[in-house]
Amino acid sequence: MPIIKKPNITYTGINQEIVLDDPNATLLDCSIMNQIPHLHECGGNGRCTTCRIRVIEGHNNLTPRTLIEKETTRIRKWDPSIRLACQCYAKDDVSIERLVWTSSEVNQLQLETVPDGVAEERAIAILFCDIRGFTKIVSENNTFDIAHILNRFYTVLGDPILINNGIIYQYVGDEIVGLFGVSGGMRDKNCKDAIRAALGMQYAIKRLNHTELVDFDINIKMGIGINFGKAYIGHLGHPKHKQFAVVGDPVNTASRIQSFNKEVKTSILISDSIYRGVPKDTLDIGQEFSNQMAGHEHQTKIYELKGFKEMDVQLQLQCSLDYLLRNEEEFASKFYDRVFEKAPEVRLLFKKNMTSQGRLLTHMLGGIVYSMSRPDHLKMGLKLLGESHSRYGVRKEHYPIVLSSLLETIEEELGEMYSGQLLSAWEQALTIITSEMKKYA
Ligand code: HEM
Ligand code: FES
């Protein structure tokens, strides 16, 4: 019998080498089996591209591209070294590097589908957010502090855009611009994503003012304007320096709506096209205005946005995620203590390192909150997770135990942030997740 050498898979970014025992395992399976965090939003179906890797060495030792991978490579214009880990198998040694490390990077990937050269007209929601009080920060702080504060702003204000399926288009002075629907999608979803992002940004700024900025004696305010309409999207510019650009009247109007906040002393204003873009009576609206925007002959209706009329589960989850997972290891250890106390026999199912297991669980919880803005991917991801759990020996009756342990840990960790509404949002989301996974037990 010839001795068949098992392939070595080297993960260059983390300097880890794995001997791949199972010839039927894809490179993504290899990561999952070895507790290496590897994003796979669509559950290995070749749709989301989050599992993408760069092959550093041993390109010819991988199986050829599948049809779906060929199509992805063509649309996104990848070079031959980029592969989808869920679509390829190693026949011999390979060195690879994971290319998408965090869920927050995922949405910027939409830019790969934007046409080169000729711009295309696409219906999008455009959000302009302006930070007020910035001049005071610049005049009263040293350069190092200003850079630190600015980076914090861009992070806390950018996250709500990214977590809601948007992309960060530009930073212009003290403004940040987000776009929703660049790669398509339904109008109501794109408008709702932009609205949720605006409310998330408002919450994030409030929190920043009450925590990190207290020491700087700064109270930042912001103004947001959102509009929906057809704009031209493409990679434009000098042939030697093209960059992603969005142009058109809806973009200028969004910027003007944002500025209008200053005149009428509001925080978030939305245009009539956003207001009409979401189902009737879903938004809590304050004042209504009618204004003639520069360059327009007609009056534009503008509405002050206060929030959603009913609790929005995604917004609640998004606003509490960071706080909840501020100490991931502690969260995971409290959670597993509860599970093992309720069902000691379950302990035997866990064969590998519990600290890495805890990190994977919290990584996955964060990923699930991000994937909620792409429900089709989420469903496919949960199918794979449910199937792998069935192989680990997890049974239907284990799911309620995990659900109640998670909710108790969340309630404890929420501490001062706790509210019945917040816990109920987590309960609704986790019930959906565990029910979906349970189908495969
Ligand atoms: C909210 C639901 C759950 C989530 C998000 C979750 C998440 C995860 C993740 C990300 C992994 C890493 C491996 C992989 O991706 O396949 C994992 C492994 C595992 N999970 Fe879960 N899980 C959930 C529910 C459960 C339940 C109900 C049980 C049963 C007690 C369970 C027991 C296990 C076991 C035994 C492993 C393998 C650990 C090992 O090989 O040492 N999980 N889980
Ligand atoms: S494309 Fe590989 S997991 Fe989605």
TrEMBL record:
Keywords, A to Z? Cell membrane, Heme, Iron, Membrane, Metal-binding, Oxygen transport, Transport
Residue limits of the Globin domain? 307-441
> Where does this chain mainly localize?
membrane
State where the protein is found. Answer: Cell membrane
Q: Which InterPro entries match?
A: 2Fe-2S_ferredoxin-like_sf, 2Fe-2S_ferredoxin-type, A/G_cyclase, Adenylyl/Guanylyl_Cyclase_3/4, Beta-grasp_dom_sf, Globin, Globin-like_sf, Globin/Proto
CDD domains assigned to the protein according to its UniProt record, in alphabetical order: CHD, fer2
Q: Which PROSITE patterns match?
A: GLOBIN, GUANYLATE_CYCLASE_2
Tell me how this protein sits in the membrane. Answer: Multi-pass membrane protein
- Enumerate the spans annotated as Guanylate cyclase domain: 125-258
Name one matching Pfam family: Fer2
The family annotation for this protein states:
Belongs to the globin family.
Instruction: From the Swiss-Prot or TrEMBL record, give the protein name.
Output: Adenylate/guanylate cyclase domain-containing protein
> What is this organism's lineage?
Bacteria, Pseudomonadati, Bacteroidota, Flavobacteriia, Flavobacteriales
